[in-house]
Amino acid sequence: MAEVLVYVDHVDGAVRKPTLELLTLARRLGEPVAVHLGPGAEQAAKVLGEHGAVKVLAADAPEFADYLVVPKVDALQAAAQAVDPAAILVPTSGEGKEIAARLALRLGSGIITDAVDVEAGADGPVVTQSVFAAAFTTKSRVTKGVPVITVKPNSAPVEPAPAAGAVEELAVTFGELARGTKVVSRAARESSGRPELTEAAIVVSGGRGVNGAENFALIESLADSLGAAVGASRAAVDAGWYPHSNQVGQTGKSVSPQLYIANGISGAIQHRAGMQTSKTIVAVNKDPEAPIFDLVDYGVVGDLFQVVPQLTEEINSR
Ligand code: FAD
């Protein structure tokens, strides 16, 4: 069976959820081979093996941390030469897309970015993208070289599928560009203690109806009662009530949690583009004609300043 390379997104060996989603998709195309760069390969291999990686190609060198993406591209190129894969899957992120684009150029391959689904086809992987604010879906196929595909977070379920996950060392020779862009400093963002927005199982969002930065405390309390991440509409972000890193939508992040609760959000197409694939959608809005109600599984017509605290209290009491 053909092997499929999966680029591992991790923090010191703690594998992030989008990589496990890629393993689900990779198994549809062949045998997943994970590529782990940096420290923590043994720790990562355990979870990668539990989710279907037959092998983990691992390389560790200071270059992966000290320089921007080129050393990682060198390593993926070495992995592609070692394995001759049927496809290479990379999580969609700023870094993931840059790695994928450079890699495709090196390999003389076609690339498809921001996939929301990948299936096996007679002539190679068939890739689904969601375009024009999710008004259309397109299916495409790479016709030249090894398909390089970046996949958006939350596009596939995480499925346990035990496999060997044996670590093999990947020999990497860095090219002359590898040390061309050095990292000068790194500062971790202050953690809210909440889950990462794109990986959270539950997202509680607030919009213009929240009516002020101080009132986002209500949204945060509801989120904390559920162990959820906090999202915001662009109107709330543009008003300066919540950071842009929490914006959901066409020009923000795409989320697809098990549960999405929209509070004081009208449901503009650009907001829907980032959340309409959520499994269960709940909206609280005082306007019964708000377009968000066309999308929801459960809708509450009411004032969020009454409904949200009641909901929080009820959940906390259980
Ligand atoms: P509104 O549309 O003003 O809706 C507020 C809602 O709150 C109303 O439905 C109202 O009934 C309700 N409400 C008010 N008070 C209460 C209350 N007390 N209790 C309950 N309900 C109440 N938007 C995004 O969200 N994400 C994006 O990424 C994004 N990208 C964009 C990209 C482009 C190119 C463009 C042109 C627009 C984009 N937008 C985006 C903006 C989008 O078009 C909408 O303007 C925005 O989503 C509206 O945000 P909102 O729903 O919070 O505000």
From TrEMBL:
Q: Which GO terms describe its biological process?
A: fatty acid beta-oxidation using acyl-CoA dehydrogenase
**Residues at which FAD binds:** 208, 233-234, 247-251, 264-271, 285
Single GO MF descriptor? flavin adenine dinucleotide binding
Q: Which PROSITE patterns match?
A: ETF_ALPHA (PS00696)
- InterPro entries (alphabetical): DHS-like_NAD/FAD-binding_dom (IPR029035), ETF_a/b_N (IPR014730), ETF_a/FixB (IPR001308), ETF_alpha_N (IPR033947), ETF_asu_C (IPR014731), ETF_asu_C_CS (IPR018206), Rossmann-like_a/b/a_fold (IPR014729)
Needed cofactors, names only, are: FAD
What does the UniProt cofactor note say? Binds 1 FAD per dimer.
Q: Where is the Electron transfer flavoprotein alpha/beta-subunit N-terminal domain?
A: 4-183
| Function, in words | The electron transfer flavoprotein serves as a specific electron acceptor for other dehydrogenases. It transfers the electrons to the main respiratory chain via ETF-ubiquinone oxidoreductase (ETF dehydrogenase).
| Name recorded for this polypeptide | Electron transfer flavoprotein alpha subunit apoprotein
